[in-house]
Design a protein that fits this description.
Order of helices and strands: EEEHEEEEEEEEEEHEE
Shape: globular
Structural class: mainly beta
Helix content: under 10%
Distance between the termini: 49 Å
Radius of gyration: 16 Å
CATH architecture: Sandwich
CATH superfamily: Jelly Rolls
Largest sheet: 6 strands, antiparallel
Bound molecules: 6-O-phosphono-alpha-D-mannopyranose, zinc ion
Strand order of the largest sheet: 3-4-5-13-8-11
């Protein structure tokens, strides 16, 4: 194992910029096939809005550390009645949880466990969301500005996308008549 040193890392709370960063990726709408319920609205938005950016993840990882952290910055937007969201995942290592600290914007963290128990945690500036081990999690930007949050996770956690990609999550976050609602995904009715 390499030697580890204390470090200060600067995070911009409105852009999610991380300095220094060790990795990053962006997700554009065309890469989120099957995530949104309304696939016609999804295809139309790719065409009409020229494949917009949905979210960007920037990470900071010290080689040899058990923990790493970073930011996720989610653009505001909607596909049909659903807001922009992340893919959602369980962790490969079922013993590992995660923590989100919201820096800017507003949203919801949608969670569900293996037995189908569902929960939401509000994401707003200064709030910390605790994700217990073996709960799937997806973040959703419900507001008009970018949702920026810091996450801290075990390096060993890994991402398991299979189940959520195949079937979706049991609850959808939708806007109906100007109200944000948590509704049952018709695929689970
Ligand atoms: C959060 C963290 C990351 C995750 C990212 C995007 O920032 O949980 O580990 O990769 O969200 O979520 P997803 O991988 O589900 O698209
Ligand atoms: Zn995670």
């Amino acid at each position: 194992m390499s030697e580890l040193y204390p470090a200060e890392v600067i995070i911009d709370p409105t852009t999610g910029a991380v300095s220094p960063a060790t990795g990053r990726y962006a997700k554009y709408l065309s890469e989120l096939s099957g995530i949104f319920s309304n696939s016609d609205a999804w295809s139309r938005a790719i065409q009409d809005e020229n494949d917009p950016l949905v979210y960007e993840v920037i990470e900071c990882k010290q080689e040899g550390s058990d923990l790493f952290f970073g930011t996720t910055t989610m653009q505001p937007g909607k596909i049909g009645e659903e807001f922009y969201m992340t893919r959602g995942h369980f962790h490969e290592d079922r013993t590992k949880g995660e923590v989100y600290c919201t820096l800017s914007g507003q949203g919801l963290l949608l969670l569900e466990d293996r037995q189908g128990c569902c929960s939401t945690v509000e994401m707003r500036k200064g709030s910390i969301a605790f994700i217990p081990p073996d709960w799937a999690h997806r973040s959703i930007n419900c507001g008009p500005i970018p949702l920026v949050f810091t996450w801290v996770c075990s390096v060993a956690a890994g991402h398991d996308y299979g189940q959520i990609l195949q079937r979706g999550m049991r609850k959808l976050i939708v806007e109906r008549e100007g109200e944000i609602e948590v509704v049952t995904n018709p695929k689970f009715d």
